[in-house]
Write a structure and sequence with these properties.
By secondary structure, the chain is α/β, with parallel strands linked by helices. It has helices at about 10-30, 40-50, 55-60, 85-95, 120, 165-180, 195-205, 220-230, 240-255, 295-305, 310-325, 345-355; strands spanning about 1-10, 35, 65-70, 100-105, 125-130, 145, 155, 185-190, 215-220, 235-240, 260-265, 270-275. The radius of gyration is 20 Å and the shape is globular. It binds 3-isopropylmalic acid and magnesium ion.
């Protein structure tokens, strides 16, 4: 189990450190875990003037799985686009062909009150967003800046999907739904966009191969509304890169805090990059305030999807459940009047829970 660790920027190193302690416990129990770290994002720029230094990419290519903290920070905003931290993330997704991004939104019962939505709307929530990650307007060509005929400055991007790209992500959607509640909702904007019309046709054409899965379609604006109106109507959502980016941030709030949500980005052979869906939170970096649970839960996904060790994943998730049940809360989870603990203390609690069970 060769794991490349890319702590990144902001709170990245602190939260990844807590995940690393979880790996230490598992290694101590005999799991053949090997880890090696490398800089990426702003840290990559600082170390090698490149948000994805060649040596970091090589390490990630050679590893079985990658654990990423978060990238980005205000000090890098002045850099040209190709040197910004986010470019490192986009490039590693492309370079490793990580086309399937799994973003579960699961509400732990103890956190129902932390959601901004009413408890009855979110309690029992368990939905999976499957976001295509290597196509769409994120990577479509041509893109850039130009002058219009009238001499105006313009910016432009290209939304793009091929049938093959839609088919492979749709299959991940159908197969995931098959292992869960057997309902798949494909989200697009087929009332306006040609790309979405092709998307919808392609997903619909596959439905015959999955007669056990109930397929529905929804426009993205309606999906955004339905997610806050009645999120429990969803089991699995499959959607493109841009819509998935937006809807997954929205869904994270249903789960109480964006600090709780892990993600997996997988290639066709279950190699994966695992990261919390939250960002680098530069405003609280280095203050021992960040919630490490999304990163620890990302490790659980790594054991489930890349290493095929659902037993280990269950144990990690069980340990997180236990610390929440014991009342441990980082600042993002604490309700008014509740005591908040720090990043490291939360890591201590998870390690203790893991050892205990
Ligand atoms: C995410 C992030 C990235 C994205 C950014 C940092 C490039 O928002 O992983 O959701 O847009 O994909
Ligand atoms: Mg995002």
């Amino acid at each position: 189990m060769k794991i490349a660790i890319l702590p990144g920027d902001g709170i990245g190193p602190e939260i990844v450190e807590q995940a690393r302690r979880v790996l230490e416990v598992l290694r101590g129990e005999g799991l053949p875990i090997e880890t090696e770290s490398a800089p990426m994002g702003g840290a990559g720029y600082d170390a090698a003037r490149d948000p994805l230094p060649p040596a970091t990419l090589r390490l990630a290519e050679q590893a079985d799985a990658v654990l990423l903290g978060a990238v980005g920070g205000p000090q890098y905003d002045v850099l040209p686009r190709e040197l910004r931290p986010e470019q490192g993330l986009l490039r590693i997704r492309r370079a490793l062909s990580l086309f399937a991004n799994l973003r579960p939104a699961l509400l732990y019962p103890e956190l129902a009150a932390a959601s901004t939505l009413k408890t009855e709307v979110v309690s029992g929530l368990d939905l999976m967003i499957i976001r295509e990650l290597t196509g769409d307007i994120y990577f479509g060509q041509p893109r850039g800046r130009r002058k219009s005929a009238a001499g105006d400055d313009e910016g432009f991007d290209t939304m793009h999907y091929s049938v093959a790209e839609v088919q492979r992500i749709a299959r991940v959607g159908f197969e995931t739904a098959r292992r869960r509640g057997r309902r798949l909702c494909s989200v697009d904007k087929a009332n306006v966009l040609d790309t979405s019309i092709l998307w919808r046709e392609t997903v619909s054409a596959l439905a015959g191969e999955y007669p056990d899965v109930a397929l529905s379609h929804m426009y993205v604006d309606n999906a955004a509304m339905q997610l806050v109106r009645n999120p429990k109507q969803f089991d699995v959502i499959v959607t493109g890169n841009l819509f998935g980016d937006i809807l997954s941030d929205e869904a994270s709030m249903l789960a109480g805090s964006i600090g709780m949500l892990p993600s997996a980005s997988l290639d066709a052979r279950q190699k994966g990059l695992y990261e919390p869906i939250h960002g680098s939170a530069p405003d609280i970096a280095g203050q021992d305030r960040a919630n490490p649970l999304a990163t620890i839960l990302s490790l659980a996904m790594m054991f489930r999807y890349t290493f095929g060790r659902a037993d280990v994943a269950d144990r990690i998730e069980g340990a997180v459940r236990r610390v929440l049940a014991q009342g441990h809360r980082t600042g993002d989870l604490a309700m008014p009047g509740e005591r908040a603990i720090g990043t490291r203390a939360m890591g201590d609690a998870v390690v203790a829970a893991l050892r205990g069970g």
